[in-house]
Amino acid sequence: MQPAIHAPPETNVPMMIDxxxxxxxxxxxxxxxxxxxxxxxxxxxxxxxxxxxILVALGxxxxxxxxxLAKLAWIGVWVLGVAGTIVAAGMENTRAGARTFEYRMxxxxxxxxxxxLLWTVGLVHLxxxxxxxxxxxxxxxxxxxxxxxxxxxxxxxxxxxxxxxxIGYFFAGAWFDLWMAVVNGGGLVLxxxxxxxx
Length: 198
Known about the structure:
Number of helices: 6
Radius of gyration: 25 Å
Helix content: over 70%
Oligomer: single chain
Shape: elongated
Number of domains: 1
Structural class: mainly alpha
């Protein structure tokens, strides 16, 4: 005859954790939440950077090859870019099952763009070469500012592209638009692909 196996008696004593353990658990949850939020932001930013990088490179190439088409090319870049941004945000919202892009962000983006237009076309009328410097450095300022909240990658991308833009302005001569196709367009694509990996 086998001896009976008895389960250990159940205890109804609640598990107690001290304040240090509770604080550590809350800090860990907050760190995970921050990483998930940054990951979602990086994924959406990556898609938008690749999209805009390709469009900007095309705009610069058209400006170099056929300067008489430059205005039309840049209008096309902006229209396709804004439309693509909205579509990419919608796709990411569907994929993530949550809103990762708010229309307030779109409104902020449009206000930012309108402010740039006010100064470059409305009030000052910058010549084409200075326009080619203003817009990339203006948008890279936004990347740097966003990077202060969302990660050092945006700061590095923004400062790198702005610095290379200024180098091209002073030293690229007649090749400036080709320089910008590589530096601005290519920089955005490479930055977007790098962010996707991280």
